Amino acid sequence: MPLLVMKFGGTSVADLDRIANAAKKVQREVERGYDVIVIVSAMAGRTNELVGWVEGTSRLYDAREYDAVVASGENVTAGLMALRLQEMGIPARSWQGWQVPINTTDQHGSARFVSIPRHNIDQKFAEGMRVAVVAGFQGIAPDGRITTLGRGGSDTTAVAFAAAFGAERCDTYTDVDGVYTTDPRISAKARKLDRIAFEEMLELASLGAKVLQTRSVELAMRFKVPLRVLSSFDETDETSGTLVCDEDQIMEAKVVTGIAYSRDEAKITLITVEDRPGISAAIFEPLAAAGVNVDMIVQNISEKNYEDHPGAVTDMTFSVPVAQVEHARRAMEAARAEGKIAYDELSVDTEVAKVSVVGIGMRSHAGVAARMFRALADENINIKVISTSEIKISVLIDRKYMELAVQALHDAFELEKA
Amino acid sequence: MPLLVMKFGGTSVADLDRIANAAKKVQREVERGYDVIVIVSAMAGRTNELVGWVEGTSRLYDAREYDAVVASGENVTAGLMALRLQEMGIPARSWQGWQVPINTTDQHGSARFVSIPRHNIDQKFAEGMRVAVVAGFQGIAPDGRITTLGRGGSDTTAVAFAAAFGAERCDTYTDVDGVYTTDPRISAKARKLDRIAFEEMLELASLGAKVLQTRSVELAMRFKVPLRVLSSFDETDETSGTLVCDEDQIMEAKVVTGIAYSRDEAKITLITVEDRPGISAAIFEPLAAAGVNVDMIVQNISEKNYEDHPGAVTDMTFSVPVAQVEHARRAMEAARAEGKIAYDELSVDTEVAKVSVVGIGMRSHAGVAARMFRALADENINIKVISTSEIKISVLIDRKYMELAVQALHDAFELEKA
């Protein structure tokens, strides 16, 4: 029988009514002839409650105990969903991570998949089970202890099951009805996309359009699992939502697919860095060791200081989340104190935001950058840093212009048109 | 190292403060040189919440899914307790039922222990772990699915571990500070017992003194595990609480140890039953099949009706919980309609209570019954049914006299004196 993976997030299973509603969506697919693997998150709020208890008990907690406690939230939902489906006359049972087993590494709190043997679940399908309800977000380490995959791990679980079981598609039910050209709260002209390429989704996800967890999109791209994002609160059918799929399944790609943004960015510049081979590694190794999440990196010759420094010097600029500025500053100052790097001054701008245009079409079309910069210039928005990749162009600008920039770019690339 | 089992009930781990308080009691035993196995219940209220969700999802639920959902409550507490102990510098880890593994039968919702292999936990003790925190109330069935032991199963888990690991003692921390000669809410003269024999505790537990679950006392008696009941809210030391132990560890047993009661009883009498071999079986088989919990059974010749019935006739009286009266009535009427039994009338008295005197000393002392009946007669309390066992005498009386009867008997046997 063809197989479908359906994933329900925390808000979609927040209480018994919503679980019943989700179960109806599963029923529809069973009636259409699919065997279904359902991946469930914990009921909304439960994971935070459990994490709160762990943190209230122990500040530097044992990640193995954290995992044992926190994974229980998904187990509850899995059992309730199986019961609900049984109540509707559908042969279903729940599976906890260790029962499948979902084998992972032993990196507790952020484990990675090792293998998902199909044998146990396949056997039950062969015996007439129509739905396997699997607790998301968790697995079992080689030593038999419970692991969790980190936040958003249920998305990743869903894609991993779709890959392991050769599912026709992985449907992710959430509280939005699809992926939009930009955030509808910022631009009223935002349009829901019918299809988007994996790579575009990856850029949009990591840039702040928090519909799908980045790791799950990466995994889907690697195993070519078509991924559909749709709402658990609307009536949905086989054309609802947005399909995240391989580039060649999209007939006429637009040059630009969407505008993403990230509000709470900070720009850090090391002024007049002594420029020598290995200087970049000397700067970014201590940042990585301090757990600082560096995003954009730009290096340019510091003309202003060139005259004062007869040796080769440069300025090094990078962006980090605002919350990590102090971590970054301390890491840099420590590295300078230890003589590993040399710079004149560390300047911080915590009032910036990042805006990006994303689209696989820009690979083959010149002029996207020009059109982007023109649109921003027409609004008198000053660009502070530019960074480009194959399918996106990002700029840092003053945070107060962020909404204006998103709207201007949405208009400039005519994204309201299908 | 000597080993102790410590069990904490739901009110003793109801929140993070109480878990911390319980952890201090564990710490004290570790510092005294014990390795400790801690058995924990779910945080108070959690199990009811989970059961409510299951029942709200499915009325005739799959007991395997019920178990998977409900067992999660204990898993949370086990992890939090292990974290708390680690925070105090004590090497500890949590174990879920399937990790030990606690092998049980597959009677989901009321599973029985099959085996508790020591290997995994012993190995961790050998590696320096001082405390194994085990989720109570649960186990794993032969097919790998999660089982629960039924209400009060955490007490039973504690005793089973004490037996399996040869523990010196099993300390059960609860919200009372020991076992009393009777309910202190009924008699102000109730006195806490230092020691009580297993058999006496068994009679008291099953008669309504709900401190320890009956099955756990049976198990302790069978494996001769000394069981101590004490309060998790008081300062306690090695003499606190009540020790439930083998008869021969009690130096001078009193004739009567305690007065038990059970408030919501009903008396059912089948009047003028045709008396023939097998009639008792014909009456009680349908009651058992209907799940009716029959307690006392008394049969006596029905003199009143003897003249009207030339054949042998009898009256049959038995007691059931008030809540099961209608089930019992329907079972009897159905059996009569099917011609399996014959009787003239079924009379029900739902206004009775049971009062019992319990004591191993009464085995060797005559006159306990006489003294009991005299004490009740002096208060003008009419006895409706009498039933005796080796170490207890129970009577059914009008419910309105129950408190008076308990107080009178407590006085008559001078239980206020140590």
Short description:
2 copies of one chain form a homodimer. Helix content of chain A is 34%, strand content 25%.
Task: Report on this structure.
Chains A, B: Its EC number is 2.7.2.4. Chains A, B: ATP binds at residues 7-10, 174-175, 180, 185, 210-211. Chains A, B: It catalyses: L-aspartate + ATP = 4-phospho-L-aspartate + ADP. Chains A, B: Residues 268-360 form the ACT domain. 2 copies of one chain form a homodimer. Helices cover 34% and strands 25% of the residues of chain A. Chain A is of the alpha/beta class. In chain A, the strands form 4 sheets. The first copy, chain A, has an 8-stranded mixed β-sheet, with helices on both faces. In chain A, strands 14-15-13-16-18-17 form a 6-stranded antiparallel β-sheet. In chain A, a hairpin with a 5-residue loop joins strand 7 and strand 8. The model of chain A has no long low-confidence stretch (mean pLDDT 90). Chain A binds chain B through residues 16, 19-20, 50, 53-54, 56-59, 61-62, 64-66, 68-69, 72-73, 75-76, 78-80, 82-84, 86-87, 93-94, 96, 98-99, 144-146, and chain B through 16, 19-20, 50, 53-54, 56-59, 61-62, 64-66, 68-69, 72-73, 75-76, 78-80, 82-84, 86-87, 93-94, 96, 98-99, 144-146.
Q: Structural class per helix/strand content of chain A?
A: alpha/beta
Oligomeric state of the chains in view: homodimer
Q: Describe the main β-sheet of chain A briefly.
A: 8 strands, mixed
Give the termini separation of chain A. Answer: 35 Å
CATH architecture heading of the largest domain in chain A: 3-Layer(aba) Sandwich
CATH superfamily of the largest domain in chain A: Acetylglutamate kinase-like
**Molecular shape of chain A:** globular
Q: Give a count of the beta strands of chain A, DSSP E runs of length 2 or more.
A: 18
Low-confidence stretches of chain A: none
